[in-house]
# Entry
Amino acid sequence: MNDAFPAVGFDVARIRADFPILAQTVRGKPLVFLDSAASAQKPRAVIDAMVNCMETQYANVHRGLHWMSERTTDAYEATRDAVAALLHANDRTEIVFTRNSTEAINLVAHSYGRGIMKAGQAVLISEMEHHANIVPWQMLRDAHGTELRVAAVTESGELDMEDYAAKLADGRVALVAITHMSNVFGTYTPIERIIRLAHENGAKVLVDGSQAVVHRRVDVQALGADFYVFTGHKLYGPTGIGVLWARHELLEAMPPFMGGGDMIGSVSFERSTWAHVPHKFEAGTPAIIEAIGLKAAIGYVEAIGYEAIAAHEAALTDHALARLATIEGLRVIGRAQDRGGVVSFTMQGAHAHDIATLLDRQGVAVRAGHHCAEPLMRRLGLDSTARASFGIYTTHEEIDVLAASLERVREFFV
Amino acid sequence: MNRPGVSGPGTTTLADDVGDLYQQVILEHGRNPRHAGRLTAFDASAKGDNPMCGDRVEVFVKYAADGTVARTGFEARGCAISIASADLMAEVVAGRAPADTRAMFETFRHMAQTGDCPDCDATMEKLRPLAGVHDYPSRVKCATLPWHALMAALDGKGSATSE
# Structure
């Protein structure tokens, strides 16, 4: 995939050595970082790529007629190629850089929603969406007169396919916007079936791949998706850089999102014309250094290989579920068959915030709260859960530390 | 503090590590709050909401004929800190005039943020076990949320946020 990163097989000790932060101690204890689903740590390759850019090869892109700008433009645009290859996009011009997944979804809600959709048409989401895939569609509804429909999830944490099909049936859904992997349950949605059903009913599909792209190979053409979004910082890359992939003809038809420099053909005070896709959607100086960091992150992940990553994380998740099952009063939320390395749980007699604070004191970082999925929490009758999430650098021993630490939390509160 | 199952001679226990935050008083009030529940008759109420973490509390106030706070009750869904804080609050504001209660909130907020309470009288000393939150910045709002709701109730507002 990338000559700079020869495949090395899966060696978690070697991988951990690539992440400088993992050598840190917290409160005198080794850091056990189980919050990668919120944001992942960064390998040396990403850090070096960004520092190297700033030290040796930095200028603004798409403007300068000088050597530095040309080199920087090449490096920035090379990330577009790397992302196109990562997602198996048909064409590099289908890759639009955004700040994050949230901005990518807002771009579609604005440019496709207001620009292409008609009042009275509907957007269909699911009950297990992140706020980022709920709020933009509410804003579209309120501004544009579209309808917002919500497909149910089952008690086991899976999409209720009957309800989903029923909500598509009247043919008024123009867009399905749905997660590829739940940030609360770790559930993978049956995305191929979801897309097929949507297309049969005349709807386009936006897939929120923020979690999934970290754990599984994504092929947007094989999936048949229309829009796919992800963010760099969960994929071991920097913050401030995200991706919208969309079919070329959709991007061509959509009006711009933001106006400014870099997105124009020509400007006069009477009127302006737009740059070609994808630059039409990239107003202003982009996140140049971050894009270069993202390319390094993609190279790093590809060198390890998604197959090896998926196998490692599946073993970790099985181990975690087995260990957590032995802790009295602990309940794992969601029992989906097809799941990745995200495990949410509650503990009788201990609130999630108290669990997180007590785990933190033992050097274990987990997330606690509603995970930016308040409607899902309400649906489950919960206020909050604690969530442990795993990455390529997570070890079985860290899961054991989590389980032993949770035993101590239980003893503390019971 | 010594708790079963977590102590051992010569080792640092979880209880030692977090004893400053989870003092016995807090664990007890968190587990068995005395003032939990909606009052059957109340003159004012307000909801408190911490949108970042999802904690929710609703506070109910019954005034005495002289305008002082006769009784406070609360319904809460939150952590041990927020429930213990709501319970201790209900205890210390009983019999106080609204102006006094506001002053107590300012004193308590200072204590929660800094760990210090130079002007603490005997009543405010009852809140001292909550002073440990100052070492846990993300948890300060857990302790102050019920007070924000109480202030909103006294001001005749329906809701408050600890953001």
